[in-house]
Amino acid sequence: MAAIKEYYTIGLHDTDAAGILYFANQFRIVHVAYERLLDRIGYPLRQIIRDTVFLIPVVHAEADFHQPLTMGDTVEIALSIAAIGESSFTLAYRLYSLDGDLVGSAGTVHVMADGKTKTPIPLPPDFKNRLRELME
Amino acid sequence: MAAIKEYYTIGLHDTDAAGILYFANQFRIVHVAYERLLDRIGYPLRQIIRDTVFLIPVVHAEADFHQPLTMGDTVEIALSIAAIGESSFTLAYRLYSLDGDLVGSAGTVHVMADGKTKTPIPLPPDFKNRLRELME
Amino acid sequence: MAAIKEYYTIGLHDTDAAGILYFANQFRIVHVAYERLLDRIGYPLRQIIRDTVFLIPVVHAEADFHQPLTMGDTVEIALSIAAIGESSFTLAYRLYSLDGDLVGSAGTVHVMADGKTKTPIPLPPDFKNRLRELME
Amino acid sequence: MAAIKEYYTIGLHDTDAAGILYFANQFRIVHVAYERLLDRIGYPLRQIIRDTVFLIPVVHAEADFHQPLTMGDTVEIALSIAAIGESSFTLAYRLYSLDGDLVGSAGTVHVMADGKTKTPIPLPPDFKNRLRELME
After folding, report:
1. Cβ(D35)–Cβ(D43) under 8 Å?
2. How far apart are CA D131 and CA B7, in angstroms?
3. Is the CB of residue C111 less than 8 Å from the CB of residue C59?
4. Residues on A contacting B at a C-beta cutoff of 8 Å
């Protein structure tokens, strides 16, 4: 089950001269759903960045493009938590047309790092618990 | 050996409030090297889009982020042709700092499709040959 | 009175390493309100682009940045129609914080052009009337 | 005379479904020339952002779009310093096609602000002198 469901309408700025969603923009679109997830678990990204106690850089990202999306298309973005590791977590995103067709998918891996040393650290227990709650 | 080598300096617009390259922009940066590849083999993307005889949408994209890149960093982008299939090809990109460190990598899979029916078609022989020449 | 009111929350991708909204993204944000306006008057941009009977390129754009916006800030975008000419129209956008402070503003001038000749043409009467209705 | 001359080739990511440069991207393209200017006068933006002694936010930006630019078009960007004030400076950008046609123009106003109080401060004398040298 999706932890977060968002809706997004493809804008002119998302498209390219081939008339469809420019592929890299799909990553931007799903990242907004991740920002909503962080809000939901009480760790808004703006605060994480401001506090710099820890960082959560994206270390891997991938996406599949099943159907071309064009301007004005509204997609549902379903974010689910695919895995929670010692110091990382993996998110899976599925993009559906309003007809329910899977039009795209994506995945991102985030590593928790110390704000000063920038080396990986274990996920803080409270953060991990809240992620886990949304995983179930 | 890389088919294409490009240099790119991270601009302010590439970064985000965390002070580093916004991950999705790495895809944009490597795509420019792909555009140079198409120029090189005599199939400029602008012409492909204009002619609409065939399309080459990205159907899969992935990237790894080894080291954070910050504003003003110059990277070398080395594009190589990883695989050539019946109607698709796979590109691999490696991003190096000027010190020679591998700071990121990416891959894209492109499928050749008919401009009208939008269904996969075999790579045109001339296109395939030119790609193959750069693969060796 | 605003013809269109939209809300937008600044995402990580909107910001830059200075920690604030990258200035050029304000233009992108207000353009989405313009896309909503075209939907509202029955001329969705996707259809205009598809039909290519006429084009409405932006010929001038300007913006003022009154207060820095940071990630997670939600702004209200109020679009009003500032002027309707023979073959052009001018839009004015005001961005407010949720406290009601004017944090930014923008303006765009759009010229109606023939889809084939690309030369200016008078605004179609129906299009002009619908714009005028929202101006009052 | 232009203080900075840069060349830029419109990439797929710069265009939109109307087949031309998405207007807001022209601001991004000219800002890169400004980043080169700061490098040239010995105040690289990455260092300004890192030191946070002062900030130079854009407070106003405007652009004109004379001719549509399409993918693969190379433009020359000529940046000149239009005005130097007490605590601000104004830049003017002209974009030329390789045929020498003026295809676009832009202007940005930057205000020097204290890194802590965020209030305007006089341009540091050395900074001002270096700008002035490039103005002549």
Report:
1. no
2. 28
3. yes
4. 17-18, 20, 23-25, 27-28, 31, 46, 49, 55, 57-66, 68, 108, 118
Q: Which residues in chain B are closer than 8 Å to C52, comparing Cβ atoms?
A: none
- pLDDT band for position C18 (cuts 50, 70, 90): very high
Overall domain count for chain C: 1
DSSP state of A23: H
Q: Encode burial over C35-52: b for 16+ CB neighbours within 10 A, e otherwise.
A: bbbbbebebbbbebbeee
The CATH number given to whatever domain includes residue A114 is: 3.10.129.10
For residue B83 the two structure tokens come to 């695989």
Residue D2 DSSP one-character state: -
What predicted TM-score, i.e. pTM, was given to this entire model? 0.97
What pLDDT score was predicted for residue A136? Answer: 76
Task: For residue A120, give the DSSP letter.
Answer: B
> Does the annotation mark A64 as catalytic?
no
State the CB neighbour count (10 A cutoff) for residue C135.
Answer: 14
* Interval D3-37: pLDDT, tens: 999 999 999 999 999 999 999 999 999 999 999 99
Q: For residues B64 and B104, is the Cβ–Cβ distance under 8 A? A: yes
d(CA C122, CA C85): 9
Q: Which of B31, B44, B70 sits opposite D13 (nearest CB)?
A: B31
Distances (CA, A) of C129 to A13, C56, C124: 27, 16, 9
Q: Please, are residues B11 and D25 in contact by the beta-carbon 8 Å criterion?
A: no
- Best interface-test mutation with C: which of D13, D16, D21, D27 has the largest number of C CBs within 10 A? D27
Q: Would you say C106 and C123 are in contact if contact means Cβ atoms under 8 Å apart? A: no
Tell me the C-alpha distance between D104 and D65, whole Å. Answer: 5
> Percentage of chain B surpassing pLDDT 70?
100
Does residue C38 or residue A52 have the better pLDDT? C38
Give the C-alpha separation, A73 to A8, whole Å. Answer: 8
What is the DSSP pairing of strand B58-65 with strand A58-65? Answer: antiparallel
Q: Check if the beta carbon of residue B32 is closer than 8 Å to that of residue B106.
A: no
The answer to whether residue B136 scores a pLDDT higher than 90 is no
Domain that includes residue D10, residue range? 4-135
